Each structure stands twice: as C-alpha cells, then as structure tokens.
Amino acid sequence: MLPKFRAWDKDSKVMRSWEELIMEKDDGDDFWLIGYRESRNIVSYDHDQILMQSTGLKDKNGVEIYEGDIVKFEDGAYSYAGTVEKDDYYFYIQGIYPETAYSFNDVADTSNHTADLVVIGNIYENPELLEK
C-alpha cells in the first residue's frame, strides 16, 4: 500500500486532501513540487504547503489519522489527548495533557488498521485544542 499524504496550504489556510494533491519531480531536481488543481486546466505550485503522512490507521469513527491530527483516548477514568507526530522510524502521540509521549502500539489494531482514538482536530485548523 502506497502512503497517503495531505497538505496544509499555508497561503490559503486550507487543508488539501490526498485526492487533491499533485506531486511532481523533474529530472535532476532535489525537491518535489506539491500542487493542486485550481480549475479543470490549471495546476498551482506557488503556495507554501506542509505535507503530512497518513498513519495508515483509522479512528473509532472511521476517520483516517494523519500527522498533525489531535487525537483523544478514553478508557474509563483514564484519558489523554495528543498530537500525532512522526520521527525517522515511526508515528507516535505527543501528549498535550498529560505531557508525555504515547505509542500507537497500545491503542492500535494493525490487523484491521484501526485505533482506539478519536480525531478531534488538527494543529493547523484547531490550534486552540493545544491549549491546556
């Protein structure tokens, strides 16, 4: 399965889904052009965008989980919220409250690609959720 990406368009303040993205690389270039269709015939590469990769997991509601998402876990009296982040090797949840890191291993079922989490927003469209 190929990885999916989405992009935060910093200029337009819009989240672009992976279906909207166009990624191209010219021979000899060290960088990728990330764009999207603005109309049937025009492709725009002039906006500053932040690329985020899918974890390959879906939350309890069937929402795909990406880097930059703010997720919540609840199990009785125990709960936490955090942001989905990625280091060189794996995805993890950086805690907002409490402030600690959590592994997807504790909340994910890789056999059916789900996690016992709920996506409650993302760091770009819902920054207020990062406040304590």
Automatic annotation (TrEMBL):
Residues 4-131 form the YopX protein domain. Gene3D superfamilies: YopX-like domains (2.30.30.290). Pfam families: YopX (PF09643). InterPro entries: CHP16711 (IPR010024), YopX-like_C (IPR023385), YopX_protein (IPR019096). This is YopX protein domain-containing protein.
